Structure to design on (521 residues):
């Protein structure tokens, strides 16, 4: 059975990321974004019978789907929480598509986001909360800097194996900032940056500079998934789910057999096979970008360029919305901000905007197909999506 | 499990470094587990390593928010591939951060960290 094109994204909303949540709560943000997404889809709250959550950043996630359903006064017939780190948002979309296709629910709301608190984030307890027992016992005694040092190990090894340069990595942050300048909702949308600006920003963990690290913040995003038959009669241009794939090869990067190879190699191949499409068919790339090296390796392993040539590939393409390879046109999380698990959803919502033709000043011209990738942990869990405006776009 | 019930894979003042090994699968195992993760059947034994390896990857940590590491920056956080073929997280000591290289041969050393003596690596003596 191929479920390509059986479900579509019919509603979407996203809050502007904020450094200071101004005393708001995770549940408060989720309720606001849920209301907006339901309105966007032309539905009533009572039409929503599926509810998928990503974990909250700092609230207790015990029975989180029920906590959220209760706060929103909803009684869904299908509910769950998806915890694949940064890949959770894409993975929630996949699970929602399965549920509506199977008839477990009609309209499934995928909700993501929450409040970010710098004191919790920087505390030892905050760090340990996102570490496995193995990481606490065998890595923490050596002073790793969480995700920063994990991706630094990857970047250094990639430079060693393939000759990738600091300039090539910096170019991703530079191009994405150009995109953010056209996004009123981006956290960093005031000032362009140059490759020199990136390379002159402080080294935090070699070879990663300050301007190559995502900024955690507060925010939320939501999408609604419906069966394609229903989507046709709903107000928005349906964004069909043509391909979906997942993969995981490790949790901590220490235990990856090859740290310069992302499991996106497998998740993307699965998604393209389901859709009957290939990387060259894509008009937009919306790739999880916690650090530039993540983008370079995702481009390589998802098949947009040859292995090891990702650095040269980004150097030879214009990644802006005006360019020949539009990538992360919302600014990416590097410039849009990383509102917790909703950072992963930002790649989905931007693809929805572009495919609907609602991206305003940053609208790309060819907008039939998008490749979206969620990446969790240190290049661990991967969830790849292929979104399209045509229900059957097999080439 | 033995060896501190798997909490720590080393004991105070060790001079040799032991890791788990499954005699049936003939595979070294890191991190320690109650059962071999390859066959999910055999209780692994502890086997001495030669305490040598090479740097698989590394990073210089220049800003640390961990209090016990704040005054140590910059320091090298690394993955070392042991002679036995498995990779472990560690620090590289007795070597300035800008002299560390991937592929560099390293040998076992021990440092005191949070009241434990933990295995780290330094550039190998020829
Ligand atoms: Zn075994």
């Amino acid at each position: 059975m191929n479920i390509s094109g059986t479900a579509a994204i019919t509603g979407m909303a996203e809050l502007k990321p904020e450094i200071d949540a101004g005393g708001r709560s995770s549940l408060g943000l989720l309720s606001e974004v849920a209301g907006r997404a339901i309105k966007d889809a032309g539905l009533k709250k009572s039409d929503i019978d599926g509810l998928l959550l990503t974990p909250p950043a700092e609230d207790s996630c015990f029975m989180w789907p029920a906590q959220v359903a209760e706060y929103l006064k909803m009684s869904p017939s299908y509910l769950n929480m998806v915890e694949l780190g940064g890949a959770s948002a894409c993975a929630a979309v996949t699970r929602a598509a399965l549920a509506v296709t199977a008839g477990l629910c009609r309209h499934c709301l995928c909700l993501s986001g929450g409040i970010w608190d710098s004191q919790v984030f920087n505390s030892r307890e905050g760090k340990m909360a996102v570490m496995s027992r193995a990481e606490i016992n065998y890595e923490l005694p050596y002073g790793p800097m969480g995700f920063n040092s994990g991706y630094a190990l990857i970047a250094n090894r990639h430079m060693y194996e393939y000759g990738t340069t600091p300039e090539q990595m910096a170019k991703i942050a530079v191009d994405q900032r150009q995109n953010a300048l056209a996004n009123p909702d981006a956290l960093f949308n005031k000032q362009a940056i140059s490759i020199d600006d990136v390379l002159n920003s402080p080294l935090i963990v070699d070879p990663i500079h300050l301007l190559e690290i995502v900024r955690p913040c507060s925010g939320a995003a939501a999408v609604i998934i419906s069966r394609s038959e229903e989507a046709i009669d709903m107000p928005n241009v349906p964004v069909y789910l043509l391909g979906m794939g997942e993969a995981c090869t490790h949790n901590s990067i220490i235990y990856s057999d090859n740290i310069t190879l992302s499991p996106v190699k497998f998740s993307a191949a699965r998604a393209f096979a389901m859709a009957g499409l290939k990387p060259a068919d894509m008009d937009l790339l919306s790739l999880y970008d916690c650090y530039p090296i993540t983008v370079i390796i995702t481009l390589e392993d998802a098949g947009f360029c040859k292995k090891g040539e990702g650095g040269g590939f980004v150097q030879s393409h214009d990644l802006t919305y005006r360019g020949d390879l539009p990538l992360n046109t919302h600014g990416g999380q590097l410039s849009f901000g990383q509102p917790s698990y909703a950072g992963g959803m930002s790649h989905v919502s931007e693809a929805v905007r572009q495919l609907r033709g609602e991206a305003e000043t940053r609208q790309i011209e060819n907008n039939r197909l998008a490749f979206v990738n969620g990446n969790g942990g240190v290049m661990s869990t991967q969830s790849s999506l292929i979104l399209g405006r045509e229900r059957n776009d097999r080439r | 499990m033995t060896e501190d019930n798997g909490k720590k894979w080393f004991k105070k003042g060790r001079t040799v470094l032991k890791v788990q090994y499954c005699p049936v699968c003939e595979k070294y195992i890191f991190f320690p587990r109650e059962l071999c993760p390859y066959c999910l059947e055999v209780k692994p034994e502890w086997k001495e390593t030669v305490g040598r390896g090479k740097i698989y990857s590394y990073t210089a940590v220049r800003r640390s928010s961990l209090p016990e590491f704040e005054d140590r920056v910059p320091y090298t956080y690394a993955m070392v591939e042991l002679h036995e073929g498995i990779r472990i997280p560690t620090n590289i000591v007795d070597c300035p951060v800008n002299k560390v290289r991937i592929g560099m041969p390293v040998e076992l050393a021990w440092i005191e960290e949070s009241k434990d003596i933990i295995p780290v690596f330094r550039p190998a003596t020829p």
The CA atoms of residues 21 and 45 of chain B lie 5 Å apart. The mean pLDDT of chain B is 89. The two ends of chain B are 37 Å apart (CA to CA). Residues B 22, 24-25, 36, 38-39, 42 surround zinc ion (CB under 6 Å).
